[in-house]
């Protein structure tokens, strides 16, 4: 078979650098039409967001502008086409209108037409055309020098559109400024609704910039303004838009509160349209909450394309969320007067039913098919067909795995599915919507992949890829690069398959913080649609030969492949953190681990792990060696996960012995034992681990070789990736800010020995103490901004979770969430520009009474998130709660070791402190949970 065209095209790294889009730019934005627009909401996780309109540009409000009826009709035609998803035709109408207005020297309406043209070009992904249109609009307004309210109103609309474009291009600061100007303009003309909309827009930019506290302040202001408004359709839509914006930022519970209030207003107004729209959002919020909890607790295999389907779950609290979502969608389908909204709800419900282990009736499927047939051509209609095909595929899969009879020939009739996708392709072509066309072609290729018709699958996949590259859409392109890699691999072309996978990973890396915004038009799950790309590439690069089961083996893999595999592991670690924060989390200038390893004294080795479907792979970097070591242990992923979970449970139980040691030794045999000879030959004293998946939940210090624990021989640290903040020159004396709670607060138990812990630290390290009532985020922020504290020690309850909004530190009166913690602790960086006396980052952050969330398989991701976002070079934290007396002893010894010898590394100081406690209390429960993350020196 011919070599794929995409491999013959020279693609420089960062080819898509100019393309950036943020999920928050798609959810809750205030578009400049005087209507509530429906996005491609038939796709569940594109969370339906009928956007809050600014003051409608009605004939009355435009009475000061005289326009011929034909031109007004042309503008209205463009708006109608836009609202129905026919963007290419809409752009043509707006372009024509702008030309007519130009001939009449009507600058104000010409500016308005170019504003709408920019919005339309943005929907098509035509960023250059959109930029030209919005710049032209602003220039026209500046040249007109009109000061009427109508002119200011149009200016505000244009500024909102400009902000939308700037955020889509990754210019969050510029977008924020544009939306601030829009809000100011709306305030000047007394447009409350427009002001609220611009404020909601500002939160999207602030969140993109990581300014959590300012975001929350604006949310509070928006909530106050909305609730003070009298009941109206505008208020219902505003509350809904606000709720959708909160949902996009991860504030699910708060989102549900706003949506419930929107529903109440809509019901009191007896507005079926508003009620249905809000019910759709409530269904999406319940679905998001159920899926979030499901992902936390799930250990399922990577459910990657082409068979990404929901998994039926047990009757738990999570199932209740899915059931509630299903009920919302069913209510819409039963009573909505809008056919499009009804079919959107029906399609969403199909996805929810997969998690409930239920199947739709044949009547429901026939109803959806009929509605799709009658849906006028539009982008939303194309995406709805794709969504429906995905659900049909999952139903067929469920049919093959169960004895339940499904009475519907559509599910088992591939010809009908192909016909549906071909219709989607043709509609996209007719609409001149290349983005929708690429999706349609790609999913047609995917369906043929499922049917094992590889030639057709490759043909359609390459066509989809060519279109995605043509329109500069990396979020689509990576999917078809990945799909092409799978197809080539099945056909035995491993070399070209690796090239395709490599290109997919490179494309993903150009997206960085936008990973959570991938495919806003289709169902998206990071674990299903991003992780497998990296894992499958690593599997291909390492390609072990199958030998005896459960045996660690050494296999000759080229150094080029080993280095590329290690880079892919690092890229996955970074992508996970970006997905955790919903933005690009690494904004500092890091230092390569390899440089520290080669210069560190004593010798340091770095272990990289990745868990694949049938094995665990270990790559080891030794000092002063360009040659990476590689070890493989064959074992099914499900067994690996079960062993790791059992070990974690035994480590947290104080009275477990033999079984705990056996489990710990087995994990030791996977990771450490194959490398012992290399470690001894290189005189290694310190081990750094870049751990994957559930391995993050295991403290490596507790690994057991049959005679002693790892910590008795090596100091241990954990790194979230290949890059770290470089250590600064060591200080003989340093100041610490120590804070904590001894009393019970906000439902958390008291920590009576915290007072002793803080006092002992103060006796060793010059410190400023905040305890109980004095321990507030405000006091910490004030101190950090005014005094140099290389060490910040917080002895308080805290939780690490795989969800950013469930990761927090407890203070006297509140929970400091991770985003807020970052702003509090990084105030010192803002001070640097004004005073050189304040260091640019914290040397050590200690969280001595925290724990990972129970039942959350990826909870340790929250610890990595804290380590990265705090800006600290090193973070010392606990994976589970230990009695605070043992904590006090260990922390005192840690600081004593650290201050007695200026040349002692933090990792070695921790090792000595842990060994000190181990001699008194041998069980790992007391000393093992303390993990040093980041720079170990």
Automatic annotation (TrEMBL):
Pfam families: CHAT (PF12770). Residues 662-935 form the CHAT domain. It comes from the Bacteria. Coiled coil: none annotated. This is CHAT domain-containing protein. It comes from Dendronalium phyllosphericum CENA369.
